[in-house]
Amino acid sequence: MLKKQLIMEKALELFAKQGFEATSIKQITDYCGISKGAFYLSFKSKDELILTLIDHFMIQITSDIDYIVKNTNDDDKLLYEFYYTTFESFQKHSDFAKILIKEQSQTLNKELIEKIHSYDRLLEKLILSMIDRLYGDEITHTKYDLMYCIKGFMSIYSNLLFFQNAPLDLQQMSQSLVEKTTILAQHTTIPFLSEELVQITTYSMHEKITKEQIIELMEQKIAELEDSIEKESLILLKQHLLEPSLSPAIVNGLQENIRNHPHCKWIAYLLRNY
Prior knowledge:
Shape: globular
Number of helices: 14
Order of helices and strands: HHHHHHHHHHHHHH
């Protein structure tokens, strides 16, 4: 296991027991069985570690949802696949989600808050693209209200996953939410939210990522990964970005190779949107 990955996994266990503030770097290094110097080779500070953990888990969730929205060809199945993938991903990462929900209500860390909001904006963008595809001009005046309703369903129903011990049928939950969302889309007539109001009340996204930034991320992951099909795929994709020579089918195949690797999902997401 890579030392950076070991630190992240062990720190997550401590954060779950004690919270972010109560956990010191010394406790993390003692728990990992490494020196402080080894910690600082991977992370500059505890805050950087926390932000890296947020990135790691939010990338898994956002990338899974992004892939389903962009690759489900049947519109009749899209909304169901969206909800099912969302809650399946929430369930898979429920331990970290519980920590994040708790810490969000207590933290005054501006960088942490902005990080969480940046992923929230990505999610809103995905939901709006799905709404436009499913309903088009029919709900132009109410699509932002519908987007917030979908986010509300995601938030409220995810609490059942995070804080209830009862087993849940994700298929039935998803089918139920598809029905509720469809009713709202077809019968809501009084709009409240507009694009301008949404922009005013939320954080704006950062500037669009550049090819150079993607290549920099790829080089970082190539250096971190051991020899594998994912590493080879990253090398070929990087070469293609620098000098396009591969067919779309090959590029899609290479992206599929990295899509499910936990340390490559963000790059796969960025490439899909580049």
